[in-house]
Design goal:
Blueprint: H1 3-15, H2 19-23, E1 29-60, E2 66-78, E3 84-129, E4 135-136, E5 142-146, E6 151-153
Length: 154
């Protein structure tokens, strides 16, 4: 008989936990700072960042994606395969909603990304997964899988 009140109390306690606290264990993100080199992000999610000098190429893998790029000496080129390349200095960018692939080539790469998918990077700089201690980029490709169990891919 005591099981029913205990079970009811447990259900009430779990229902009162904010949804963000339950989802926190599944959330994942990566922060890139002071990077020089190349970053390839294939995600369903969002990225927000800056680039001191270089090129950002965006390809869409799903509908509803919103893209914002601004900067000094900004030039926009549509490539033969439909991707859009942005070049310039002091670039600020954000891509969100839907599925997309963003390639960042240049110096002064600073970005935060979250969602589900894969981020690959090569060069110099630091990155942090889910706010943990920063790690160094390397001269060979590093892959970081984002999703419910964010971790550095082998």
């Amino acid at each position: 008989m005591r099981r029913i009140p205990l079970l009811a109390a447990l259900v009430v306690a779990l229902a009162s936990v904010p949804s963000s606290a339950v989802a926190a264990s599944a959330a994942s993100g990566v922060s890139l700072t002071g990077g020089s080199g190349r970053v390839v992000m294939t995600l369903r999610g969002s990225v927000l960042g800056t680039l001191d000098r270089g090129k950002i190429t965006v390809g869409l893998n799903g509908g509803g994606t919103q893209i914002y790029v601004d900067g000094t000496n900004l030039k926009q080129h549509t490539l033969v395969d439909g991707r859009v390349a942005y070049t310039g200095t002091d670039l600020r960018f954000r891509v969100f909603r839907g599925g997309w692939r963003v390639v960042i080539d240049g110096t002064g790469i600073n970005a935060s990304a979250g969602g589900r998918g894969l981020i690959s990077l090569r060069g110099t700089g630091e990155y942090s997964i889910d706010g943990r201690a920063p790690l160094q980029w390397t001269s060979t490709w590093q892959a970081i899988r984002l999703g419910p169990r964010s971790q550095k891919a082998a």
